UniProtKB/TrEMBL annotation:
Signal peptide: none annotated. InterPro entries: Anti-sigma_ChrR (IPR012807), Anti_sigma_zinc_sf (IPR041916), ChrR-like_cupin_dom (IPR025979), RmlC-like_jellyroll (IPR014710), RmlC_Cupin_sf (IPR011051). NCBIfam families: anti_sig_ChrR. It comes from Paenacidovorax monticola. Coiled coil: none annotated. Residues 109-199 form the ChrR-like cupin domain. This is Cupin domain-containing protein. It comes from the Bacteria.
Length: 222
Protein backbone atom coordinates (compact mmCIF):
# COMPACT_ATOMS: atom_id res chain seq x y z
CA UNK A 1 0.00 0.00 0.00
CA UNK A 2 1.36 3.45 -0.91
CA UNK A 3 1.88 5.91 1.92
CA UNK A 4 -0.36 9.00 1.88
CA UNK A 5 1.16 12.10 0.29
CA UNK A 6 2.52 14.66 2.75
CA UNK A 7 1.17 18.19 2.06
CA UNK A 8 1.91 21.76 3.21
CA UNK A 9 -0.36 22.97 6.01
CA UNK A 10 -3.16 25.44 5.41
CA UNK A 11 -1.07 28.17 7.07
CA UNK A 12 1.53 27.89 4.32
CA UNK A 13 -1.05 27.63 1.54
CA UNK A 14 -2.95 30.66 2.84
CA UNK A 15 0.23 32.73 3.21
CA UNK A 16 1.28 31.69 -0.30
CA UNK A 17 -2.12 32.66 -1.71
CA UNK A 18 -1.82 36.07 -0.02
CA UNK A 19 1.74 36.61 -1.29
CA UNK A 20 3.09 36.75 2.26
CA UNK A 21 5.72 34.01 2.08
CA UNK A 22 9.41 34.83 1.77
CA UNK A 23 11.08 33.75 -1.48
CA UNK A 24 12.47 30.44 -0.21
CA UNK A 25 9.28 29.06 1.33
CA UNK A 26 7.29 30.38 -1.65
CA UNK A 27 9.47 28.37 -4.06
CA UNK A 28 9.00 25.23 -1.97
CA UNK A 29 5.21 25.60 -1.82
CA UNK A 30 5.02 26.44 -5.54
CA UNK A 31 7.09 23.35 -6.35
CA UNK A 32 4.67 21.18 -4.38
CA UNK A 33 1.65 22.77 -6.03
CA UNK A 34 2.98 21.90 -9.50
CA UNK A 35 2.48 18.21 -8.87
CA UNK A 36 -0.35 18.17 -6.32
CA UNK A 37 -3.93 18.54 -7.57
CA UNK A 38 -5.21 18.22 -3.99
CA UNK A 39 -3.31 21.31 -2.83
CA UNK A 40 -4.15 23.29 -5.96
CA UNK A 41 -7.82 22.70 -5.22
CA UNK A 42 -7.23 23.66 -1.59
CA UNK A 43 -5.56 26.88 -2.77
CA UNK A 44 -8.58 27.74 -4.90
CA UNK A 45 -10.83 27.26 -1.88
CA UNK A 46 -8.61 29.47 0.30
CA UNK A 47 -8.45 32.15 -2.41
CA UNK A 48 -12.23 32.10 -2.80
CA UNK A 49 -12.64 32.38 0.97
CA UNK A 50 -10.23 35.31 1.07
CA UNK A 51 -12.11 37.03 -1.75
CA UNK A 52 -15.40 36.58 0.11
CA UNK A 53 -13.87 38.09 3.25
CA UNK A 54 -12.65 41.11 1.27
CA UNK A 55 -16.12 41.59 -0.19
CA UNK A 56 -17.56 41.68 3.32
CA UNK A 57 -15.24 44.44 4.55
CA UNK A 58 -16.65 47.98 4.84
CA UNK A 59 -15.58 50.48 2.21
CA UNK A 60 -12.57 52.63 3.01
CA UNK A 61 -11.41 55.91 1.48
CA UNK A 62 -8.01 56.05 -0.21
CA UNK A 63 -5.56 58.89 0.44
CA UNK A 64 -5.82 61.69 -2.17
CA UNK A 65 -2.37 60.85 -3.60
CA UNK A 66 -2.96 57.07 -3.83
CA UNK A 67 -3.28 57.02 -7.63
CA UNK A 68 -0.25 59.27 -8.14
CA UNK A 69 1.91 57.09 -5.89
CA UNK A 70 0.74 53.94 -7.66
CA UNK A 71 1.57 55.37 -11.09
CA UNK A 72 4.98 56.52 -9.83
CA UNK A 73 5.73 52.99 -8.62
CA UNK A 74 4.77 51.57 -12.02
CA UNK A 75 6.95 54.14 -13.81
CA UNK A 76 9.89 53.21 -11.59
CA UNK A 77 9.67 49.62 -12.82
CA UNK A 78 10.36 50.82 -16.37
CA UNK A 79 13.02 53.41 -15.53
CA UNK A 80 15.70 53.51 -18.28
CA UNK A 81 18.94 51.88 -17.24
CA UNK A 82 17.38 49.73 -14.55
CA UNK A 83 19.08 46.35 -14.63
CA UNK A 84 17.10 43.17 -14.14
CA UNK A 85 18.65 39.75 -13.59
CA UNK A 86 18.42 37.66 -16.73
CA UNK A 87 16.27 34.55 -16.26
CA UNK A 88 18.47 31.49 -16.05
CA UNK A 89 17.07 28.02 -16.60
CA UNK A 90 18.93 25.65 -14.23
CA UNK A 91 18.10 22.56 -16.29
CA UNK A 92 21.76 21.63 -16.74
CA UNK A 93 23.15 23.09 -13.52
CA UNK A 94 23.55 20.52 -12.12
CA UNK A 95 22.76 17.33 -14.03
CA UNK A 96 19.73 15.27 -13.04
CA UNK A 97 18.80 11.59 -13.41
CA UNK A 98 17.21 10.55 -16.70
CA UNK A 99 13.51 11.32 -16.80
CA UNK A 100 13.65 13.98 -14.08
CA UNK A 101 12.98 17.64 -14.89
CA UNK A 102 13.39 20.82 -12.89
CA UNK A 103 10.34 22.37 -11.17
CA UNK A 104 8.89 25.35 -13.01
CA UNK A 105 9.08 27.25 -9.72
CA UNK A 106 12.88 27.44 -10.22
CA UNK A 107 12.64 29.39 -13.46
CA UNK A 108 14.84 32.47 -13.18
CA UNK A 109 16.95 30.85 -10.45
CA UNK A 110 20.52 29.62 -10.81
CA UNK A 111 21.57 26.26 -9.40
CA UNK A 112 25.26 25.56 -8.89
CA UNK A 113 27.04 22.35 -9.82
CA UNK A 114 26.88 19.48 -7.37
CA UNK A 115 29.31 19.92 -4.47
CA UNK A 116 30.65 17.05 -2.36
CA UNK A 117 29.59 17.11 1.30
CA UNK A 118 30.30 13.52 2.32
CA UNK A 119 30.44 9.97 0.90
CA UNK A 120 27.41 9.59 -1.37
CA UNK A 121 26.13 13.08 -0.50
CA UNK A 122 26.13 16.18 -2.71
CA UNK A 123 24.49 19.58 -2.56
CA UNK A 124 23.77 22.48 -4.91
CA UNK A 125 23.13 26.12 -4.01
CA UNK A 126 20.01 27.69 -5.55
CA UNK A 127 20.38 31.44 -6.04
CA UNK A 128 17.12 33.39 -6.15
CA UNK A 129 17.85 36.61 -8.11
CA UNK A 130 15.00 38.62 -6.58
CA UNK A 131 16.00 37.59 -3.04
CA UNK A 132 19.73 36.81 -2.68
CA UNK A 133 19.26 36.16 1.04
CA UNK A 134 16.94 33.19 0.42
CA UNK A 135 18.58 30.01 1.75
CA UNK A 136 17.50 27.41 -0.82
CA UNK A 137 19.53 24.38 -1.82
CA UNK A 138 19.30 20.91 -3.35
CA UNK A 139 20.43 17.71 -1.69
CA UNK A 140 21.33 14.55 -3.61
CA UNK A 141 21.89 11.54 -1.36
CA UNK A 142 22.83 8.04 -2.55
CA UNK A 143 20.84 4.91 -1.74
CA UNK A 144 21.30 3.76 1.85
CA UNK A 145 23.05 6.97 2.94
CA UNK A 146 21.69 9.32 5.57
CA UNK A 147 22.04 12.80 6.96
CA UNK A 148 23.31 13.10 10.54
CA UNK A 149 20.66 13.43 13.21
CA UNK A 150 19.59 17.04 13.65
CA UNK A 151 16.94 19.53 14.64
CA UNK A 152 16.32 23.12 13.45
CA UNK A 153 16.72 26.58 14.94
CA UNK A 154 13.70 27.79 12.94
CA UNK A 155 11.57 26.40 10.11
CA UNK A 156 12.81 24.11 7.35
CA UNK A 157 10.69 23.09 4.36
CA UNK A 158 11.64 20.13 2.18
CA UNK A 159 10.09 18.91 -1.07
CA UNK A 160 11.05 15.48 -2.41
CA UNK A 161 11.77 15.60 -6.15
CA UNK A 162 13.13 12.09 -6.68
CA UNK A 163 13.53 8.92 -4.62
CA UNK A 164 12.47 8.25 -1.05
CA UNK A 165 13.71 8.69 2.52
CA UNK A 166 12.46 7.77 5.98
CA UNK A 167 13.32 10.01 8.91
CA UNK A 168 11.92 7.97 11.80
CA UNK A 169 8.55 9.71 11.61
CA UNK A 170 7.30 8.84 8.13
CA UNK A 171 8.28 7.78 4.62
CA UNK A 172 8.67 10.64 2.15
CA UNK A 173 8.57 9.98 -1.59
CA UNK A 174 8.31 11.99 -4.84
CA UNK A 175 5.92 14.92 -4.38
CA UNK A 176 5.94 14.75 -0.58
CA UNK A 177 6.39 17.91 1.50
CA UNK A 178 8.01 18.06 4.95
CA UNK A 179 7.66 20.98 7.36
CA UNK A 180 9.99 20.87 10.38
CA UNK A 181 10.88 23.23 13.24
CA UNK A 182 12.78 23.14 16.58
CA UNK A 183 10.33 20.57 17.97
CA UNK A 184 11.47 17.96 15.43
CA UNK A 185 14.65 15.90 15.77
CA UNK A 186 15.15 13.40 12.97
CA UNK A 187 17.60 11.56 10.72
CA UNK A 188 16.57 11.19 7.06
CA UNK A 189 17.71 7.83 5.64
CA UNK A 190 17.53 7.28 1.87
CA UNK A 191 15.91 3.99 0.91
CA UNK A 192 17.91 1.17 -0.64
CA UNK A 193 16.25 1.19 -4.06
CA UNK A 194 17.91 4.40 -5.27
CA UNK A 195 19.18 7.91 -4.62
CA UNK A 196 17.01 10.76 -3.36
CA UNK A 197 16.95 14.40 -4.52
CA UNK A 198 15.21 17.09 -2.46
CA UNK A 199 14.92 20.86 -2.52
CA UNK A 200 14.94 22.63 0.84
CA UNK A 201 14.39 26.10 2.23
CA UNK A 202 16.00 26.79 5.61
CA UNK A 203 15.16 29.67 7.93
CA UNK A 204 17.81 29.93 10.62
CA UNK A 205 20.13 26.92 10.85
CA UNK A 206 20.03 23.16 10.80
CA UNK A 207 21.36 22.07 14.21
CA UNK A 208 23.37 18.86 13.76
CA UNK A 209 24.28 16.71 16.78
CA UNK A 210 27.94 16.08 15.90
CA UNK A 211 30.84 18.52 15.52
CA UNK A 212 31.88 17.30 12.04
CA UNK A 213 28.29 17.42 10.80
CA UNK A 214 27.88 20.94 12.21
CA UNK A 215 31.06 22.03 10.41
CA UNK A 216 29.85 20.60 7.08
CA UNK A 217 26.44 22.15 7.61
CA UNK A 218 28.04 25.55 8.10
CA UNK A 219 29.99 25.18 4.84
CA UNK A 220 26.78 24.28 2.97
CA UNK A 221 24.78 27.04 4.63
CA UNK A 222 22.43 24.63 6.38
Amino acid sequence: MNAPVQHPGDDLLLAHAAGQLAAGPAILVATHLEGCAHCRERMRTLQATGGALLESLPEASLPPDALARTMASIDALHRPGREWPAPVQPTAHPALPDGMSWPKALRGCQASRWHWMGPGMRWSRVTVPYDPAANVFLLRIAAGKFLPQHTHSERELTQVLYGRFHDGRAMFGPGDFDDTDPTIRHQPVVQAEGECICIASVEGRVVFDGFIARTLGTLVGM
